[in-house]
Every structure is written in structure tokens, then in C-alpha cells.
Amino acid sequence: MTKPRTINTEAIVLRAAELGEADRLLTLLTPAHGKLHATARGVRKTTSKLGGHLDLLTRSALTLSYGNQGTGLATVTGAEALDSFMSLKADLRALSKALYLGELADTFHPLEAPNPPAYTSFLEALQALESPADHDLVLRSFELRLLDLCGFLPQLARCVQCEEPVLPGGHFLSPAAGGVLCPACKPSYGDALPISVDALKVVRYLAANSLSSSLLVNVRLPLHRELAALMSSLLRYTLERELRSTAFLRAIAQQWPKAEDVPSRTA
Q: What is the C-alpha to C-alpha distance for residues 237 and 250, in angstroms, rounded to an integer?
């Protein structure tokens, strides 16, 4: 079934690359059409009416037009910004996290594979990064939500090897095994990492609850570091590489170390 010649859709700009003298090639995430590529002709000209509506990480209402057969690369023929996330973009720490989430969304989504809940989760994460919320929890919540929606969420309730319930103490997480391991099964997987009771509780809670509920959890810095290392290992194994934005994210985090949080209230 061919695409319609013109579609109207909301979209968030995930990537933008220069094309020719004045055009841009955009990677867009939409709720109903999934990830799309589109050209924005003349958008780099100072006289372009589309310019500010198609900036990176901007949410806009777009009109996309296709060729006579309704196929091929779309062209943006109309755009109106709905949310530019200007306060987020003015904060380098928040921006580094938003770019990381955008690359995650881009990497996990194949072209033209609609995933409306993933779009909603990404939008909610960007909105949360503009708030005083715990931004690291925003990242962990989105990572787990995306893994779940794309079919890669690890087994967190039982040992993935022997299927026995995971009891307090001696937990391990193995990306290769696809979940948590008990001490008896851990030797079978060389990539197994120890996971504390608090970390396992938080990961389980974030995976099962909305972002708004997840942001009610208070986490101290050492636990944040453990969660970040565990999720980095899990995502690197799932994607078979490290994201380009990860190095930038770490550099910004090292430049502005996070102060100790209040005592944790884990789920």
C-alpha cells in the first residue's frame, strides 16, 4: 500500500544534516508513522519560513509531501513549532541528556515502524528535562521504557537461567543472559555484574511505572552511579555498540558533578 501524497503529523526532530547548498536532511519521530526521513528545502536560508520550526529536538506540526507515486523521500512543505524546549537547550547539562535520549530513540526505531507509546515517552522525557525533576531518573526511566516497548526488557523478577525467584542478596545482572541471575547461575555468564538490592528495586519500579511516578523516587548519588553503569552495560550489549552521545554526556557530567541527594526512598 503506497503512502498518501501528503500527510499532516506531529514530529520531533531527532537529527539534522546539511544537504546541498541550503537544504537539510531531517530524521523525524512521529506518533503515527514512526521514524521518517524528510528533506527541508531552503531551510538554511535566512529568508526561510521553516527555519526555527525544524531545529533539533523541536516538536512541530508538519506537512510532508511525497512524489507522484506517493513514495520516496518526503519533503517538508509546512511546519509550525509546538514546543521548542528553549529552556532545555539553554542548559548544557539538560541538553546533553536530551541529545542522548534522542539518539536512543533514533537507534531503537527502524524507519516507518509506528510506536506511539515510545513517541509519548520521548516527549514526556523531554518535558521532564525542562523541570526541576531528577534528570538521571528521567534517563533511567526512558531507557527501561524503550527497552520494554521494543521487546528488550530484561527479566527482573526471577533468575533468567533457573527461573527461581530472586531472593535478597547476591543478585547479578547479565545482558547476555537477558536478566538477573542467582549466585548459582552466575558463573555461566562472564558479563554478569553485581546489582544491589536497592538498584534492583529501583529498576523494577521504573520498569513497571510511569515517568511521573518514577520521579517520586529519591536516589542518592552512589545508587545513581550504579544504575547508570548497569544500564550502560545493558544498552551497549543490546545495541552492539556505545552511542556517540554517551561520551558527551559523561564529559558534561564530569564537568558538573552532581551533589549528594537526600536519602533514598526506593520502591
A: 19
Confidence of residue 172 (pLDDT cuts 50, 70, 90): very high
pLDDT tens, position by position, 18-35: 999 999 999 999 999 999
User: Residues 61, 21: contact at Cβ < 8 Å?
Assistant: no
Question: The cell 564537568 sits on which residue?
Answer: 255
Identify the structural domains of the chain with CATH numbers, from first to last: 6-84 (2.40.50.140), 88-255 (1.20.1440.120)
Q: Is residue 209 within a helix (H) or strand (E), and if so which, with residue range? A: none
Query: In Å, how far are 120, 159, 239 from 11, measured between CA atoms?
Result: 11, 40, 24
- With 80 as the cut, is the pLDDT of residue 226 above it? yes
SS (H, E, C) 6-66: EEEEEEEEEEEEEECCCEEEEEEEECCCEEEEEEECCCCCCCCCCHHHHCCCCEEEEEEEC
Q: How many beta carbons lie within 10 A of that of residue 87, not counting itself?
A: 11
H/E element, 260: none
Summarised one tens digit per residue, pLDDT across range 90-128 is 999 999 999 999 999 999 999 999 999 999 999 999 999
Q: Choose among 9, 15, 22: nearest CA to 57.
A: 15
Eight-state DSSP code of residue 241: S
Phi, psi (rounded to 5 degrees) for 52: -70, -15
pLDDT, residue 5, reads: 85
Distances (CA, A) of 142 to 160, 208, 259: 23, 12, 22
Q: Which three cell numbers stand for residue 95?
A: 541538553
